[in-house]
Amino acid sequence: MKVYGYFRSSAAYRVRIALGLKGLGYEYAAVHLRKDEQSGEAYRRVNAQGLVPALEDERGRFTQSLAIIEYLDERYPQPPLLPATPEARARVRAIALAIACDIHPLDNTRVLRYLLRTLGASEEAKDAWYRHWIDLGLAALETQLAGEAATGAFCHGSTPTLADICLVPQLANARRAGIPLSAYPTLTGIEARCKALPAFEQAAPERQPDAE
After folding, report:
1. pLDDT bracket for residue 113 (50, 70, 90)
2. Do 69 and 133 belong together in one domain?
3. CA distance linking residue 82 with residue 116, whole number of Å
4. How many domains does the chain have?
5. Which residues contact residue 144 at a Cβ distance below 8 angstroms, ignoring those fewer than 6 apart?
6. What percent of the chain has pLDDT over 70?
């Protein structure tokens, strides 16, 4: 199994966590986003979108982090990354999608680069954009998770799921941007419990071979 990623990519971080929770080994192929290696012809042959992560195994090549994680969960069902009932699975997917679809794309490197280089936004305007969307999304998640009985030690119950796999990288991004997280005690409490697990610890950006 081979994973193409970048140490700071939230999406690649998610896949590394999932692989760790499943106990799956893999070869790591670094794609340096700051050097724009994802736009080169060689990587475009791997993923036409020019995005990380991508995963290759004997069955094919797969892209998009959530699709990769669900593929791994179906192929290697233990431990499960989604709960047993349809209702619980819908809740976990909704939390994961709130992060992966509503928060993360708006603070993605290529979006911020477009704001600066193409639209001519200042660094201050770019940083304000980043903080606005992060805070808006995290505030909603804090309210949801703090108020729902299904929230446990983790986003859903007593074991990590797809929701936690998405949450931890997003909070890491926010911290790297200097965004205070004291307003989100439920989220940071879940994060602390996740980071105590080897799969989360070993997947951290600073633990990757391409870390700068």
Report:
1. confident
2. no
3. 38
4. 2
5. 95
6. 100
